[in-house]
Amino acid sequence: MKELVLDTETTGLSVRDGHRIVEIGCIELDNLVPTNNVFHVYLNPERNVSEKAFEVHGYSDEFLSNKQKFSEVAEDFLSFIQDKKIIIHNAEFDIGHLNNELSLIGKPKINNSNIIDTLELARNKFPGSGISLDALCKRFRIDNSKREKHTALIDCELLAKVYINLIDQKEPSFDLAENNESKIILDDKRDYCKKIILPTDKELTDHSEFLKKNLKKNYF
């Protein structure tokens, strides 16, 4: 099942105050394993970044002035997210800004049925506890030391790990996935996933040889 983790950075909090998106980051997941398929852009918001937003992400007006506008990347963005579940922490904020950008260029809004909000997952799972991304990283012992500023791709990388823990999955072995030496099979059930790791032919042969040598040594 392909999903994607998404995060945005903006010029400020509210679209009602005319704030715009300055960065979009998306990381694709295939059966919970990040792929090499990534969407990442900095955007010229066509307005100034607020002081508070600059303190959060550090993107200055000068840095953003020569970047693409949302209208120039919209088609690529919509193609990237098409037919995928979108995982967001505090989806109301990001989707509100994305839908505002889409409406400004006459594009249809993102369908809320495709959204998984990890803030809601965390709120239901840990009522009364801290559910910020940093708090969840601390709870699940995820290293967030790179998060000196809130940048979209770093936040996506952290959220992917948080999401796996929120749905009670151990993080898959990325080495096995990258080398294609073993397969990870996931049941297609949202509330519970069982992972089955199938050994390769070489692993089976090595195991058989190991048993023969050790059984002969210890018992004969």
Summarize the structure in words.
The chain has 9 helices and 7 strands. With 220 residues, it is of the alpha/beta class. The protein has 2 domains: 2-171, Ribonuclease H-like superfamily/Ribonuclease H (Nucleotidyltransferase, domain 5), CATH 3.30.420.10; 173-220, no CATH class. The longest helix has 19 residues, at 201-219. It starts with a strand and ends with a helix. Residues 173-196 and 216-220 have low confidence and may be disordered.
Q: Which structural traits does this protein have?
A:
two-stranded antiparallel ribbon, 42% helix, 220 residues, 7 strands, alpha/beta
Q: What's the level 1 CATH class of the largest domain? A: Alpha Beta
- Taken together, the total number of domains comes to 2
Number of helices: 9
Radius of gyration based on Cα positions:
22 Å
CATH-derived topology of the largest domain: Nucleotidyltransferase, domain 5
Order of helices and strands: EEEHHHEHEHHHHEEH
CA(first)-CA(last) distance? 50 Å
What is the β-strand count?
7
Q: What is the CATH homologous superfamily assignment of the largest domain?
A: Ribonuclease H-like superfamily/Ribonuclease H
Q: Helix/strand-derived class?
A: alpha/beta
What do the pLDDT scores average to?
Answer: 85
Give the proportion of residues in helices.
Answer: 40-55%
Arrangement of strands in the largest sheet:
3-2-1-4-5
